[in-house]
UniProtKB/TrEMBL annotation:
It comes from Lutibaculum baratangense AMV1. This is cAMP-binding protein. Pfam families: cNMP_binding (PF00027), HTH_Crp_2 (PF13545). Keywords: DNA-binding, Transcription, Transcription regulation. InterPro entries: cNMP-bd_dom, cNMP-bd_dom_sf, Env_Response_Regulators, HTH_CRP, RmlC-like_jellyroll, WH-like_DNA-bd_sf, WH_DNA-bd_sf. GO terms for cellular component: cytosol. The keyword Transcription applies. Residues 28-148 form the Cyclic nucleotide-binding domain. Gene3D superfamilies: Jelly Rolls, Winged helix-like DNA-binding domain superfamily/Winged helix DNA-binding domain.
Amino acid sequence: MLDVTMLRPGQEALLHVPSGGAFGRNTVLLRLPADVRAVLHELGRLRRVEKGTAICAAGFRPQAVHFIESGAVSSSAGCPDGGAAEVALTGYDGAVGLGSAVLDGASSVTATAQTECEILTVDAKTLRSLSLRRPAVLGILHAELSREVEQLVRLSVCHCRHRLVQRMAGWILAMDHYLEGAVVRATHAELSHLLSVRRATVTETLHMLEGEGAIRSRRGWLAVRDEEKLRAISCGCRHVPQRLES
């Protein structure tokens, strides 16, 4: 069991892993050699963050890499006119700020916890130094970064090519996967920001998905009712990995 020490409301909680204990379902970490994982868990900081917590900001060089263990983190990119849209949704199959370890540059996105999350935070310089000494580790990190870039490009094209109902269906599928079927808590205002559309359009689209029997939607939350119908409506651009066995 994890010993959870809560801080003041609105702050993160630190999760202390007992000596000799095992923790980790992040698939990027699981691909690393066992001895490297052990070092990262020893040197890293396992923490719980609340929904809405800023993970990294665009234009700044991240000082850490954040491996998501549970929950989902939304990454948004902005335009000169002040508009923004989500370009990536990361769960236990990815990491935030990985470019800071691999490329040593500023972040091009702003990442925010879309749900309560458990995250293993590792100092970027430490991870970079370790990867330079272990080519196999560097190769794994490069492969993950390439996957993230591919997702970003695919979703950017998706915003231009596909109807909102298709994009909304894909977003709900991804969130449902990362939350393992739990209720997705999101307001219409949050969805309008993530998908870069008017709030009224979000409301109309959710009603459309409800009418198809694909979801249930109430004020502040929604849930998948029929996954097959939702997948049929979705354009398929979202990366929804196969769910881990419990």
